[in-house]
Every structure is written in C-alpha cells, then in structure tokens.
Design brief:
The structure holds two protein chains of two kinds. Chain A has twelve helices and 14 strands. Chain A is an alpha/beta fold. In chain A, the strands form three sheets. In chain A, strands 3-2-4-5-7-6-12 form a seven-stranded mixed beta sheet, sandwiched between helices. Chain A starts with 7 loop residues before the first strand and ends in a 28-residue tail after the last helix. The model of chain A has no long low-confidence stretch (mean pLDDT 95). Chain B is of the alpha/beta class. Chain B has one domain: 3-Layer(aba) Sandwich (Rossmann fold), CATH 3.40.50. The N terminus and C terminus of chain B are likely disordered.
C-alpha cells in the first residue's frame, strides 16, 4: 500500500482555520446567501457577527453589494455553492466585480461531482466560465492543507479570486508545512531525478482527483511505467514553468484528470500550453465529457464517468499501448466518505 | 470641505442648458439620446446644483484620454474624479442608466465640473467620453451600463461607509425600466433589511423605454405602492418641478428613500412628440426633420439669450 493512502482525515478544516485567519484582518467580511452552515461559516458568523452579512437567496444583489464593499476598502469573502456564484449572476460577476478588478473572494463549495445534489448543484463548468473572465484568478483546493493555506494566497491577490473549496471530511494529502504556492504545481512523482527527465507518462491532476491519481500512480510505477505527476491548484493564470517543463519531458503521453468538464478546464489549459510550446505528445483528458451529471454519491459518479483511479490505469494502457496487467485490487484502497456524514449539515 | 452646491448656477438655468447642449450635440451628430435629456434635465440639475454635497473642483476638468481597462497592471480610472475628492461627510452619486451619459456630461458642464469641449470627444475613438458611460467616463463612479446593477453596488458602498462611520449619503440615479429587472427588487429588499437610510434614489419615471411606451412593454406601476410594500419611503413628484425635487431629495426618512420623478420625455423639445410612441433614441429621418430641429434650436438660443437678459434686469 502506498504511503499516500495513510491519510489523515480532517473534519471541516475551513471552520476554525478561517476564524483564526480573520482575527487580525478587520477588512475581511463574509457575505452568505442562505447557505451559511452548509459553507462552514456558521461559527464565523457567531464569532464576528458585525462582519457577517446575510444577503438571502439573492445572489445577483449579493455580488453587487460585494463590489460596493470592496470599493470601500473591505474584502468580501462570499460563501455559497459554486453554481450560485457564476451561473445565475454571471453578468453581475463580470460587470460589478471582474471588470473593475475588485478584491472580492468567491468561495465556491461543491465543485463538480462532490455533491449528490444533481445538475442544479454540481459546478461542472465553473472553471471554463471563470477562465473566460478577464482579471479573474482561479484556485482549486485538493486537500485540507490547501483548504487552510488558500486563504493567504487569495488575500494577496489584487483582484477577484474564485476558489473551488472543499468541506466536510477532507483528506490531508500534503504536509501542513507545505502550503499552497501560487501558480506553482506540486510535484508528487518524478519519472527521474528532475522535472526535465523523460517520463512515459506525465499526469496533471487537480482538486479531488489528485487523491484518485495517488491511488493509481504506484501501481503504474510497479508495472514499469515512469510517471511524473503534478498537482495543479492555480488554474488561472496558467503560466507555471514547472508545468511546461514537465509537459516537454513527456515521451509517451500526457494525461489530465479534473473534476470538471473536459472542455474549458485543466485539460484545455494544458492543451493550450502544449500547442503554444509546440509540444506534440498525445494528450488525454480525463473529466466529464460533454455531459451533465446527475444526483448520486461521489464514488458512484467517479466510477460512472470514468474519473476514478482505475480510469487513469485504463487510460495509461490505451495511450501507452501496453498491457500493464493491473487490476483494481492492485490500487490503493478507496476512501469512502459517508454520504450522510456528521461533518456535513445537510445531505447535499 | 468646500461644497460645490453653494456656488453653482440656478438649477432652472442648468436644466435649460442641459437640453440646449444635448440638442446641439444631436444636431451635430445626426442623432442621440435626446428624450433622456428632456426628461432628466431638472433631475440632474437639482442634484448637481442643489442637493449633492460634493467637493469643489478648482476648475472644470478635461476628460482624460482612454488609457486602459482596469487590470492587474492598470489601476481603475474613475469618472468619479469629476465629483471631487471623496470625503466621509460628502455624498456619492452613482448613475445607473449609463445610456444617459450625454445628459450627465451636459449636466457636469453646467455644474462647472467638466470642460464644455469634452462633448467634442463624445463617442470618439480613444476618448473616455463614451456614448454609454463607462467607469472612466466623466461622472461615473462605478460600472453600471448593464441595467439594475448600480443599486446593489450602491448598497454595498453605503454599507461599507456605515461600517467606517461615514455620515455622507449615497445617491443613485435610476431609470424606470430598471424596475423590470429582478435584481432591483433584490437590492431594495437588502437596503431595507439593513436599514440603509443613507441611500437615496431618484428615478426618472419617463414611462418610455427602448421598444416604446412602457405599458406596451411591461408595466411597473403601481411603483410607489410596491416600493412602500418593500419597506422603502417614497415621494412621487413632478420631475420638472425644481422645488418639489429638492424637497423630496433632501427629506430624511430613516429608510432607503425613493423619489419617483414623473417626467415628460419630450419636455422642452415639443417636436419630439411627432416621434411618439418610440422616443428612446433619435435619428433624423432626413434633412427636413433635421432642419426643423435646427430651427427650433436657433429659436431656443434667441429665447435663452432674452431670458438671460431678463434675469439680469
């Protein structure tokens, strides 16, 4: 079993961390649209009631208020489900926040298929939409360490920031003393001794799918495949030289894995980088194909849409045209979060 | 702080000047947003000439040339500089319907805040004197051209100012069509919930919109009743009555306050009545129509000169 599987599970990492972090930042205010406990800021509200503003189920107006507060020197941190930050109020997001390049933090919960809430709650196109918004920075968290350290990263950016946030029971995949670094991928495996050494497979993963990839990479390595694996947390800008160098070192194939449509997200950003750098290695994008998802458990949806660890193995076999003789039992075990965990205030 | 309101000309004369300048511009450019000047001239004249507490400018300012849109390496350029240095006790003024830009520019000229040569740059490439006011355009403190967004932004500004213990008011100028947008009602709901009584909204109820008379597009009445039901205070006034507008705008009610200024979108240019029911944008049908507007303009200048002399006596 890979050491990566001996992961600590952190329950609701955002709750107390955000309270501690906000203590010496009086400019930080929180706006919520009736999903306060669901977005783990109920305790924050009770700690800082004078800085918490309930805006009701009215996201268009909430984004406008956020823009106005930012103009007056405050730093609004909007907490709601991701879909309600960019689908319904996209014009407000663009005109009242993004165009004037205001310091508003959009903390979007339930990215992709992390919710059984079905199509209405699953933000599967958020990165694609947000990447097409000038001035927007896009960050995605993949574990508890990133949930904790993304706050400093966002706080330092002089413009709007969208964060794909995790909640509930979150694994700690990365050491707590190795925080989120802006626009710098984490190197999780190297095919050789450096990022420039040739790799049969260069795997780039983001968000919750990094945990899936971590289950599969040891099996691939055991089967003799050389793998360079990067975890990507900054999706815009997408100018990290580490990524370009890793892509240039790929000899067999490049595979991206994302909890998002394969259109417009990590896979598309990698394709653009490859095209601009003249990298002609085949690229395979694991993610939702051009489809909506539906309401079911995360584990079920990961398997149904071929987003799980074994999908990476299958993809590797196809793109490398090798029978790697790996079956599902060779993978590190699945960590199954309870569908009705006490770490969540609702079943969504 | 020096407040400009004490030294500007009479709002009645300012309003006449707004109409005259906009008509001249429309004649020179074979078109423009004339009906908005007719309906809103007194509203903007009362605001800039009487009500708004804005820092004084040393002299009318020239509009800056366009340099860049806001971005990581280019700070936001605000048309709010024409409203003077912001102060905790001063007012903010946010124009929501950005297509009133020409009328706003004309009012700023009448208020002595914008150089009158600025209109020569209207809608010219590389100019900030844009046809639809942008955030860098004179008089525009925010990005508002997508209708119904300004009131929410103003709410956030008013809330932020309250958190900083500022006592100044936040005025918003709106068009009536914006009350068809759901966001407007979301904003009113929030203004009332947070008791943001520093927000004062003046609405140009000219009952005309792009497709034609409002009642043929989507009715918003009874607007005062709806606003009161939401918990706002409302004054409905004749939007061409300087004294009534001033009284209504200066009234402190302890609630977000709405002044519904009922206006005539042909006021001061009766020729526009020939174009009813669609008044939103004027483009001359031909030389004949244009020359009749030119004759009317020439007549206005003569009458205006007489009136000025009369006032002087």
């Amino acid at each position: 079993m890979s050491p990566a599987r001996d992961v600590q599970i952190v329950t609701r990492p955002h709750v107390d961390n955000f309270i501690r972090w906000s203590a010496d930042k009086p400019e930080v205010v929180v706006l919520s649209a009736d999903l306060t406990n669901s977005c783990e800021v109920g305790k924050w509200r009770d700690t800082y009631p004078e800085r918490f503003f309930s805006m009701g189920m009215a996201e268009q107006n909430m984004l406008g208020f956020a823009g106005g507060l930012a103009r007056e020197g405050f730093e609004p941190w909007l907490h709601t489900f991701a879909v309600f930050l960019y689908r319904r109020p996209l014009d407000q997001l663009q005109m009242s926040i993004a165009y004037p390049n205001l310091r508003v933090r959009l903390v979007g919960f339930l990215p992709g298929i992390t919710t059984p809430g079905g199509v209405t709650h699953q933000a599967i196109d958020d990165i694609a939409v947000m990447r097409a918004i000038p001035n927007m920075t896009i960050l995605e968290t993949g574990d508890a360490t990133e949930v904790e350290s993304v706050l400093d990263i966002a706080h330092a950016i002089d413009g709007p920031v969208y964060i794909r946030m995790l909640r509930g029971e979150v694994p700690r995949l990365f050491p707590q003393d190795e925080p989120f670094t802006f626009n710098r991928a984490r190197v999780l495996s190297l095919a050789g001794s450096t990022i420039d050494d040739p790799a049969d497979l260069v795997v780039l993963t983001s968000g919750i799918l990094t945990e899936e990839a971590l289950r599969a990479v040891p099996a691939l390595q055991s089967a003799g495949v050389t793998v360079t694996h990067l975890h990507v947390s900054t999706l815009k800008p997408f100018t990290d030289p580490t990524i370009t160098r890793a892509l240039q070192a790929a000899t067999g194939a490049i595979v991206t894995m994302e909890n998002h449509l394969i259109i417009g997200g990590l896979g598309s950003a990698v394709a653009e980088t490859m095209a601009e750098a003249g990298i002609s290695t085949p690229l395979h994008r694991i993610g939702l194909p051009d489809t909506y998802a539906h309401g079911a458990s995360q584990a079920h949806l990961l398997a149904e849409y071929h987003l799980d660890a074994f999908s990476l193995v299958e993809t590797a076999q196809t793109v490398l045209q090798r029978d790697l003789a790996i079956d599902a039992t060779d993978l590190a075990p699945v960590r199954i979060a309870a569908a009705h965990s006490s770490a969540k205030v609702e079943a969504l | 702080m020096t407040l400009y309101a004490e030294s500007v000309p009479d709002p009645q004369a300012m309003a006449a000047g707004v109409r005259r300048r906009v008509l001249a511009h429309v004649l020179a450019n074979n078109g423009g947003y004339l009906s908005q000047a007719c309906s809103a001239a007194e509203l903007l004249a009362v605001l800039y000439g009487r009500v708004l507490r804005l820092s004084a400018l040393d002299a009318p300012m020239h509009p800056p040339a366009f340099e860049s849109v806001p971005g990581p390496d280019s700070p936001r350029v605000s048309g709010g500089v024409f409203h003077g240095e912001p102060s905790p006790v001063g007012d903010r003024f946010i124009v929501s319907p950005a297509h009133y830009a020409l009328v706003v520019y004309a009012a700023l000229i009448e208020a002595g805040r914008l150089d009158e040569a600025a209109l020569d740059q209207f809608n010219k490439d590389g100019s900030t004197v844009e046809m639809i006011g942008a955030e860098h355009s004179p008089g525009f403190e925010t990005t508002t051209g997508s209708l119904a967004q300004a009131l929410s932004t103003a709410g956030g500004i008013a809330l932020g100012r309250r958190l900083k213990d500022e006592t100044g008011r936040t005025f918003v100028f709106m068009s009536d069509g914006e009350f068809q947008e759901g966001q407007t009602w979301e904003a009113i709901q929030a203004l009332v919930y947070y008791r943001l009584d520093s927000v004062r909204v003046i609405v140009d109820v000219n009952r005309a919109q792009c497709d034609g008379p409002m009642d043929s597009v989507m009715t918003i009445e009874p607007l005062a009743t709806k606003l009161k039901a939401f918990g706002a205070s409302v004054d409905s006034v004749d939007g061409h009555d300087i004294a009534a507008l001033t009284r209504a705008l200066e009234r402190s009610t302890g609630r977000p306050h709405f002044v519904l200024a009922y206006t005539d979108p042909t006021r001061g240019v009766p020729l526009l009545n020939e174009r009813r029911p669609v008044l939103h944008y004027l483009r001359f049908t031909g030389d004949d129509e244009r020359s009749r507007y030119q004759d009317y303009y020439d007549e206005l200048l003569t009458v205006g000169a007489d009136a000025t002399q009369g006032a002087g006596r």
